Amino acid sequence: QLQLVESGGGLVQPGGSLRLSCAASGFSLDYHAIGWFRQAPGKEREGVSCISHSGGSTKYADSVKGRFTISRDNAENTVYLQMSNLKPEDTALYYCAAGSTLSSDQSHYYYWGQGTQVTVSS
């Protein structure tokens, strides 16, 4: 069964940090670009960051540049999203997805996880 599973979400105070993980089972992430997306209540899902299959190229939304870092460990079949200096507006359900190309366009992604909740609040 092909599956992506996100973990690492939780409740954190403003200014805090979290590291999200996206683990694949049933297939190898080696040949896929991976994207992180998020959806806040009442808002559309948006792209946060993505990384090429090799890890050599990355992209970030302007809202998270300088605060979030995406990385991957193909040997562990896992992609990470290190989030620092978190803000209340980062509160959302975070999804990872595997796709064909490095893109913030959700239509390029075909395997999706179920999401992990991140809540930033004092």
Structural notes for this entry:
There is one protein chain. The protein contains no helices and eleven strands. It is an all-beta fold. The strands form two sheets. Strands 2, 4, 5, 6, 9, 10 and 11 form a seven-stranded mixed sheet that branches. A four-stranded antiparallel sheet has the order 1-3-8-7, with no helix packed on it. A hairpin with a 6-residue loop joins strand 5 and strand 6 (58-60). It is globular, with a radius of gyration of 13 Å.
Quickly count the helices. Answer: 0
Instruction: Please give the largest β-sheet.
Output: 7 strands, mixed
User: β content, as a range?
Assistant: over 45%
Compressed to H and E, one letter per element, the order equals EEEEEEEEEEE
Helix share of residues?
under 10%
Structural class: mainly beta
Question: Measured on Cα atoms, how large is the radius of gyration?
Answer: 13 Å
| End-to-end Cα distance | 39 Å
Structure summary, number of beta strands? 11
